[in-house]
């Protein structure tokens, strides 16, 4: 049940973030893919803000993992771009961070991918003109929550 959504501007990206945030449950994974500059971090920030975070949301490009325990649902924002091997997630303690939390994963393929997990909402972002398009593929546990 893959669906393509037009995101012509920042307001549309924020609205998608809000829509996703309203349906999140502990254990979910939002897997964000797309080339550099397609809006992965922008969408991640929109989701985190929609969950109640009011401060700046730094990109985890260098820290790899940022945690947000004070939201409606605890959330782990990870950017796996700099990983050379999926096994490095063990060294980072990713499973410990994920306990009872949502994982918001940029560059999920660098961590071995998460599409096999039932709670994965895979979102591939692409540039389309001046805007973006999101191709959304819900995992089995998202079937009743999406769209």
From TrEMBL:
Top-rank taxon, per record: Bacteria
Compartmental location: Cytoplasm
Principal place of residence: cytoplasm
InterPro entries (alphabetical): P-loop_NTPase, T6A_TsaE
Keywords from the named record: ATP-binding, Cytoplasm, Magnesium, Metal-binding, Nucleotide-binding, tRNA processing
Pfam families in the record: TsaE
GO MF annotation: an example: ATP binding
Keyword tRNA processing: yes
BP GO terms, sorted: tRNA threonylcarbamoyladenosine modification
GO cellular component, one term: cytoplasm
Family, per entry: Belongs to the TsaE family.
Protein name in UniProt: tRNA threonylcarbamoyladenosine biosynthesis protein TsaE
């Amino acid at each position: 049940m893959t669906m393509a959504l037009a995101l012509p501007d920042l307001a549309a990206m924020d609205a998608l973030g809000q829509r996703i945030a309203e349906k999140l449950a502990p254990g979910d994974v939002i897997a964000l893919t797309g080339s550099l500059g397609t809006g992965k971090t922008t969408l991640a920030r929109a989701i985190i803000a929609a969950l109640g975070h009011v401060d700046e949301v730094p990109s985890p490009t260098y820290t790899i993992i940022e945690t947000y325990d004070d939201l409606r649902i605890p959330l782990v924002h990870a950017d796996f771009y700099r990983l050379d091997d999926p096994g490095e997630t063990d060294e980072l303690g990713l499973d410990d961070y994920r306990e009872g939390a949502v994982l918001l994963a940029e560059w999920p393929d660098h961590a071995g991918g998460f599409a096999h997990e039932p709670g994965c909402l895979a979102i591939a972002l692409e540039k389309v003109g001046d805007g973006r398009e999101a191709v959304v593929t819900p995992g089995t546990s998202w079937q009743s929550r999406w769209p």
